[in-house]
Every structure is written in structure tokens, then in C-alpha cells.
Amino acid sequence: MTTSTAGLNAALTPLRFLERSATVHPERIACIDGPRRITFAAFRQDAVTLARALRRNGLRDGERVGMLASNSYEALLAQFAVPLAGGVLVAINTRLAPAEVRYICDHAGIRTLFGEQDLILASRRTLDSADLVETYVLIPNGDGTQPQPKHPDSGTVTTMDAYLAGGEWRDGDGDDKDSDASFPFSVADENAAIAINYTSGTTGRPKGVVYTHRGAYLAALGLSVTYSFTLDTVYLWTLPMFHCSGWCSGWASMATSSTQIALRAVRGPEIWRLIDEESVSFLCGAPAVLNTIVGAEEAHQVTGISIATAGAPPAPTTIAACENLGLDIVHVYGLTETYGPIVSCAAQPDWAALSVEDRATLKARQGLAIVTSEEVRVVEQVDRHADPDTVLVDVPADGETMGEVVMRGNLVMKEYFHNPDATAEAFIGGWFHSGDLAVQHPDGYIQILDRAKDVVISGGENISTIEVEQAIISHPAIADVAVIGVPDEKWGEKLRAYVVLAPETDATAEVEGSVVDHCRSLIAGYKVPRDYRIIEELPRTSTGKVRKNVLRDEAVQGE
User: Fold this and answer.
1) Domains in the chain, number
2) Domain with 118 in it
3) Same domain for 26 and 64?
4) Do 446 and 517 share a domain, yes or no?
5) From edge to edge, which strands make up the β-sheet containing 492-501?
6) In what order do the strands lie in the sheet with 403-407?
7) Domain check: are 440 and 294 in the same one?
8) Among residues 190, 210, 230, which one ends one of the domains?
9) Distance (Å, whole) CA 478 – CA 475
10) Of 19, 17, 1, 373, which Cα lies nearest the Cα of 183?
11) Which of 402, 429, 434, 490 has the greatest number of CB atoms lying within 10 Å of its CB?
């Protein structure tokens, strides 16, 4: 490349979004966290100060930095400050056990761990016994107060205030290598890692999914288009920031200079208070979050609010309940390995004339790739140990033939961190294999039917548990449901439904019979469960997915 054209190919990074927002809208509110309101100018300065503190404390290029915290200004700030310092952010699931936190810190090589005091305390003994983390940094509480180390010990535990103080710049502190100008909001290599997000690990050790600056930049822009973000958008964090880098929503919101509100716990009353008082216009969450919102006593009619949902296919009844309140549902689909959402169920103009129920049925499909992604495919399943150069064959787009969803392009991970074998296995045929089974409709929209591991084979018939669950939950007596397969001598497997009853519903034979009859009117008889177990609450991950492995383990132990 000649000198005259060298500037035509700048490396992409979402750090640019913060630099621009702070320049164009310095006094607008970037983030609200409890009583704290941070402007874009202050956000930018905090990012530079934290980046300088990290470098002064010995952070090396490409080194991983941990964050163990619920949604907060500091967790959002780290998405910019850590890569600004040349590091890689590892946001850790706050619901993990200490041994699981230890595994991630060990695997990622984390020396500095930011987090909330109670979460740090819960994991510290396990981490210290392995001599892993060198410095713990306590972030402020939800009320903005700064917790102090309970047992100060040689600087091992410090506060966010103290850590930031170590990154302040004053004239005469040193040479220009340490000045604000030495932290440009740019990178030399757009394919360098910006974050590592660990999978849930329900079938084994969690894998570290490597996100790049380029992928994060393009995912953010794709979502800002998909969600129609603008300068006036107010984004409420009902989705964990640790999950897939918050579906890249923090970077997407920063791209449009939108205001972000950190919500530390998903509670219906607080969500509705913020909707009313802060003019929230967009939020994200799994179907379980939608149920929390519409089921709250404070729920009321609204206008101008959209919710992106994913994590599990939402039942049409859930979508209808939201739309009856005026909440517009944007159904998206993706995985940790695809920076979160990579597919969106784009609404067609003629859907507006349909009934809420009919429109909800269409919106329950996953849809088509977002604008910055290559199109996804539905292909015939191949063995995980197949030849890496296996040619993948598309299934017919008839809405009936089931295959596996595969994807490639800008919004697919770089690799599994320190796991080349798993990386190679995931990319057989040059496409990432999702493990999700779907059909493709004639209009090109895909519809997820199940995870490959969740399909029940009964009497030689493949049964989608999602289809069965959607039939069951449409009955008014059912508040929540999960269907699994359990061993059966005659059929190989049979369906078992774990159900949560709606309030003021009693467990009677009449209710069970009513549910069975209701399902038989919607799906084939062989798909209707005859085995029902009533429980108070389904086991879920922090992102709302049902932990079916837990139900399967309990079923095996109970046999």
C-alpha cells in the first residue's frame, strides 16, 4: 500500500464509538447507575484513567482482566477501558460457584479481578488457595457508595476509587508516554482480541470464546440498525453485561450515543419504575425476563418501547402478552460464539394487519441474518469428527425438513481460547456449527426447533421439545414449562413435562387432563406428554435458559 492510500484501511474497533460520543455529545448522559449519572465526557476520562492505572500496574498487551459484577457503570466502563489499555476483558458469570470462577481465572490467566465485594469474598478463598489473582478491585455498590476492604492485606484488595487514583495524570508526572494522548481510541490490529466470553459449560468445561475488535465493531453497528437505536434511545440493562459482552449492546448504544441504565437485579417493580421515570425505550432479555415484566403488578400500557428477546425461543403466548401491553418484540437469535444476536426476525409490513396472535406466531421464528453478518444456513447434520473439508448440504427450504444451523463471517468468533481441537471441530466444512436444529421456511426465515442434544427420539420419531413446550404453555393453567426425554423400555424415550402452575391453580387430575386435551388439539398425539411433574420453579441459567441437564440428571436419579 502506498503512502497516499495507507489511511484508507483503518482498523475497526468499538473504542472509536466512545471517542466520538464524548466529542460530539460531551454533556449528554452516557450511563445511569443508581444515583450516579455519568456524561460521555466523564465516561471517556474515566476510561483513560482506568486504562492508565492498568498499565501502571503492569498490564501487558493481550493480558486478560477479569470482571465479576452485576450490571454496573464499572462493568460497562471496563468494556472500553480494558481494551484501551491493550488488555482483554473477561466478564465472569456472577452465578458461578467459586470453583467455576477459579477455573476461568486460571484458564484465562487473570491477575487483576474487578468485582462487587460480596462476589469477591465468595470466591477469594478458592482463588487465593490456587495463587491465581494478585489484585482484587472492589467496585462501588448500587447506591454509589464505595465499599472498603474488610481485611486489608498488603494491597491485595483495593477499592475502585484508590485504583483510579493511581491512574490520574498530572503535569510533571512523567513523560508523554503516560499522557491522555498516549491512549488513542484505535488499535493496530483489528483482529486482536477485545474480550473472552466463557460458555455456560452445561456439557463440560466452559470454553473461552474470543471476540475481536473488528467483530465487536461490526456486531455493534449491525445491532444498532436492527434495534433502530438513535441519540434519543434509552437502553435499560435487563440483560447481564457478562453474557456475550452484553450481546454487544453496550458498544451498540455507544455507537449512537444512547443513554444506558445499569440494572443490578431484574425485578418487575424496578423495571417499571425506570420505564416510567427515565423514559426507557429499549431493553433485552430472555423470555423469562419478558414474563417478569408482563407479570408485574406495575405493568401497564405503554408506547414506544421495544424488547429484544433471545436465549430460548419465546412462546407465541409470551410475545402476544407483551404486545397487548404495547411492548414491541424484536426476536433475535445467536450464541456466545456469534457475539450474541446474529439473526433477527425482521417484521414485514403486512404483518401489521394480522391479529396479535397470528403476528406473534410469525415473530416466534428466528428470522434472517442481521445486516453485518453473512446469511446463515440450515444444513444436513454431520458427525463432529467428520473431515474438516466436508461439503455441507443445505436442507430444502420447506419449513419441514430439519437440519443444523451453521454460520460464518464477521460475527463469528475468532477461536476458542487455548483450545484448538474444539475450534477445529466447531468449524467443519468452513462454517461454525451451532448445535441448534431448525427448519428454513420458503421465505428464507429460519425457525429453531431444538438443540441437537435436546431432541427426544420416541418410537423412532424425532420430537422437538420446543414445539411441545409452546403447546403446553399456551394453556392458561401453565406459567412455565420444560420438556425433556426420559428412558422408556417400550419407546426408548418418553416425554416428561416439568410445569410451573399459574397462580391460584391447583394440581388436579382435571387440570392435567385439560392440558393433555389442549395439546392434542395443537400437536400430534405422539408429541403430547403423559408424564407431568409440578415444580415451584425451573432451574435456569443467569441468562434465562432452562438448565435441562439438571432436570435430566434428577430424572435419572429418580428412576
Assistant:
1) 3
2) 12-210
3) yes
4) no
5) 478-488, 492-501, 531-534
6) 377-379, 403-407, 432-440, 446-451
7) yes
8) 210
9) 6
10) 19
11) 434
